[in-house]
Amino acid sequence: MNVHQSNLMRGMMLIGGELVPSEGGEWLESVNPATEETLGHVPHGTAADVNRAVAAAEAAHPAWAALEPKERAKLVKKLAAKRASTPRSKARPFRRAARTCISPSASPMASSAESFRSIIQSSLPPTRWRPR
User: Fold this and answer.
1) Among 40, 44, 48, 32, which Cα is nearest to 99's?
2) CA–CA distance from 34 to each of 1, 4, 9, 53 (Å)?
3) Per DSSP, which regions of the chain are E strands?
4) What is the pLDDT of residues 32-64, one digit of tens each?
5) First-last CA distance in the chain
6) Predicted TM-score of the model (pTM)
7) Strand pairing of 38-43 and 27-31?
8) What angle do CA 16, 14, 117 make, to 5 degrees?
9) pLDDT tens across 79-91, in order?
């Protein structure tokens, strides 16, 4: 392995707004298929982790559903802006894991930010044209 230990990514699961490891405590190795180099580790999720994530989503849904579409759009825009402003250095391990060649205009962070913008557009009610 030619990656220094400090450069390895260590993934976590986002459940209930917190980054957590698997309840099972086990990890899967993420390997670059081209070089067989270890890129990092991700939690080996269990059925209990899935149940925990579903319970958290179900608990969060009423508050999210109660928001007006414009309020939801504001929150998603804020998330998109944060993703778009994430330094490229933080995305590097994930680019390597996906084996992609990234230009500054096509980074995964910018791409996911664009996905959020698309979600916003599709979730807002259409603006109606009204004759004057």
Assistant:
1) 32
2) 13, 18, 18, 33
3) 9-10, 13-15, 18-20, 27-31, 38-43
4) 888 888 888 889 999 999 999 999 999 999 999
5) 69
6) 0.58
7) antiparallel
8) 100
9) 888 878 877 655 5
d(CA 2, CA 89): 18
Distance of alpha carbon 92 from alpha carbon 7, whole angstroms: 10
Long-range contacts of 127-132 (CB under 8 A, 24+ apart): none
The amino acid at residue 45 is: G
Instruction: Say how far apart CA 127 and CA 41 lie, in whole Å.
Output: 46
Residue 14: both structure tokens together = 């986002």
- Are 80 and 116 in contact by the 8 Å Cβ rule? The answer is yes
Sorted by where each begins, the domain ranges of the chain are: 1-66, 68-132
Q: Closest Cα partner for 100 from 53, 39, 23, 49?
A: 39
CA angle 124, 129, 132 (to 5 degrees): 145
